[in-house]
Fold this sequence. Notes:
With 396 residues, chain A is an alpha+beta fold.
Amino acid sequence: xxxxxxxxxxxxxxxxxxxxxxxxxxxxxxxxxxxxxxxxxxxxxxxxxxxxxxxxxxxxxxxxxxxxxxxxxxxxxxxxxxxxxxxxxxxxxxxxxxxxxxxxxxxxxxxxxxxxxxxxxxxxxxxxxxxxxxxxxxxxxxxxxxxxxxxxxxxxxxxxxxxxxxxxxxxxxxxxxxxxxxxxxxxxxxxxxxxxxxxxxxxxxxxxxxxxxxxxxxxxxxxxxxxxxxxxxxxxxxxxxxxxxxxxxxxxxxxxxxxxxxxxxxxxxxxxxxxxxxxxxxxxxxxxxxxxxxxxxxxxxxxxxxxxxxxxxxxxxxxxxxxxxxxxxxxxxxxxxxxxxxxxxxxxxxxxxxxxxxxxxxxxxxxxxxxxxxxxxxxxxxxxxxxxxxxxxxxx
Amino acid sequence: xxxxxxxxxxxxxxxxxxxxxxxxxxxxxxxxxxxxxxxxxxxxxxxxxxxxxxxxxxxxxxxxxxxxxxxxxxxxxxxxxxxxxxxxxxxxxxxxxxxxxxxxxxxxxxxxxxxxxxxxxxxxxxxxxxxxxxxxxxxxxxxxxxxxxxxxxxxxxxxxxxxxxxxxxxxxxxxxxxxxxxxxxxxxxxxxxxxxxxxxxxxxxxxxxxxxxxxxxxxxxxxxxxxxxxxxxxxxxxxxxxxxxxxxxxxxxxxxxxxxxxxxxxxxxxxxxxxxxxxxxxxxxxxxxxxxxxxxxxxxxxxxxxxxxxxxxxxxxxxxxxxxxxxxxxxxxxxxx
Lengths: 396, 337
C-alpha cells in the first residue's frame, strides 16, 4: 500500500511569507541590533572613561616608555623608545617563543606519537608514560617547575659550568660566543642560498625523471653537497668570515657573547614538552586512522617499514592530523602568555603588564592585545588550512 | 585571576553601567564595610600575619577610615593587590580606597582617574645586594642583573638611574614582589631594588637575611599614600582627613591610651579635635567624635608607625623624614578647625 504524492505547483505567497525575503530581513535586523550594541557599548565606554577622568585614546603609543626590558630582539632603549616600541619588543618575544615552541613541540610530538605505536615494549610504554604524565599536569605548574628547577639546579654565575667552545652555563642562562661578521659573511650566505635553490631544482628534475623512468637519484646527498661545498670552498679561499666575541668574566655577569635567559629557556621547554604530549596523541590517532590494509599492501610490494611509514601511512594520516594539530599550535601560542608567571618579557608581560600599569589605559591596551592574539591565531589557522588543502586526499 | 576579575569589572563598568561612583561614603555606609586595596605581601605595610589578621601601616589607615565611619575598626575588608593590578581594582570600584604603598606621581594623579589623598610614608628607592659581592655603593653596579617588580615607579627609576650614570643594566622584571625576591634569593640577580622600607621588610623573607645588605644610596623620591577615585570630593575629603587626624592627634599628644582623659581637656585645639567644641566631623560627613574613634581604635600616626615599621616592630626602621614637622621631620597636617 502506498500513498500517492500529489505534485503541487507552488502557490503564490505574499512577499512577507517568502522564506528568502524573511531570512534576509531577519539577518539584516540581527546585524543592525549587533551593530547598535557595539556602537553604544563603545560610546558608553568613552563617555564613562571621560567621566571617571581616566585617559583614553591611543596617544600613549608615542610616549617614552622609560622602563627596561630584559630580552629585546630589536633595538630598545628605556630612555628613548616609546610604548609602541615596547609593544613590538613584546610581540616579537611572543612570536619567537611561540614559533620555536611550535617547531620543537612538533618534532617531539611526532617522535613520541610514532614511538607510542612502536612494537618495542619499552619505547611504546615510555612514550605512553610521557604523554599521560605531561598532559595531566597543569602547564603553569610545569613552567614554575622548569623555571625554579633550572634556576636552583644551575650554579651561581661565579661558578659557571665551562662547556666546550667557550659556552658557559649558570643560573643567569646559557652564554655563548657571539659571531661577529666582518664583510665576507654575506657572500657565504648567498652561496648557500644559491646552493639551496640549485638543490630544489635538482629535486624537481629527479622527481620528474623518477616518474618518467623509475630511476631514483640521491636527492638528499646531492642537495647537501650543493648547499655546503661552494660555501666551503669560498671559506677555504677567503678565510672564515666571522670572529667570535667570547664571553669574559665581568664583576657581576659574563660580559659579551649572546645569552639565552633562563626565563626564555624555561618557557620554551615547558611549552614544547607540554604541547608535544597533545601532538603525540593527535599523531597516534592519525596513524591509527589509516587502514591496516595500506601497511600490509605496502609490505606486500616490498617496501621497508621506514619507507612505508614515510610514503604510505603518514601522507594519509596527515589528513586526520592537521586540523587538530592546528588547534594545538593555537593553544601553544596562547599559552605563551603564561610567561608572565616566570618573568619572560612576552607581549602580555610587557604590554598588558607594565605598559597598562604605567598608562592606566586598560581598555585600549587589553583590546590591542586581544586583537594581536586574534590576528596571530587567524594567521596560523589560515596557513594550516592552506597546508591542509594541499595535503587533502585528491579523489580521482 | 584577580587581574581578570578586576578587568572584567572595569570593562562592565565602562561599557554598560552609567558610572555611579559619586557617592562612595554612602555606598560604604550602606554596605556596612569598607573595601580596602592592600599589599598582601609586604611586612610592615600590608600583610596577613600567621593568624590571618592583616597588619601594617597601610592596613591601619584603612582601619582608621572604618573606625571614623562605623566606630568599629574591624569593618574594613582587605583585598590583596599586586602592583600592576592595583589601579584597575580602584578604577573599577572593586575597592573604595587603595592603601598599598603606592607612590604619588603626577601621571597617576591625572591620567589614571585617581587622586592621592596624602602621604603616609616618605620613602625612597634603594638596592639590596649580597655582602659577598663586596659592593659598597649603587654606583658600582655597572653590568649587574637587578630583580624588580613590574608596574612600579621602581622599575622606571631603575632604568633612569643606570642610564644617568652610564651603567649597563640587566633588569629582570616579575609580576609580584614575592617572585622577584625569590629569584634574587636563588641567585638570578645580583641586586634587588624597591623602596627602602620594602628592602628591610623583604630582607626578612630571604633564606639568610644576614648575608645581604642595603646599599646607602636612595635614588628617588617615593611619597607613599592612599588614593581614591576621582569625581567624589566628599569621599576624597574623608580619606584625606582621616590621615590628617592621625597626625594632628600625635602632634597634640593624644594617644590611644590617654584619649579618654583628653575628652575633658580645656585646650581649645584638643577640644576641636575630640569634638567637644564645634562640629568639624559633621562637616566632613562623619560624626563629632570621628577623630576620637580613630585614635581610640587604631592610634595616632606615631603609634601606628612604631607598631608596624618602627621601634616596636621587627623592621625597626628609623622614623627619619617621617617624624612630625616639629620634631625634625616633614610630616605636617593642616589643623582641624
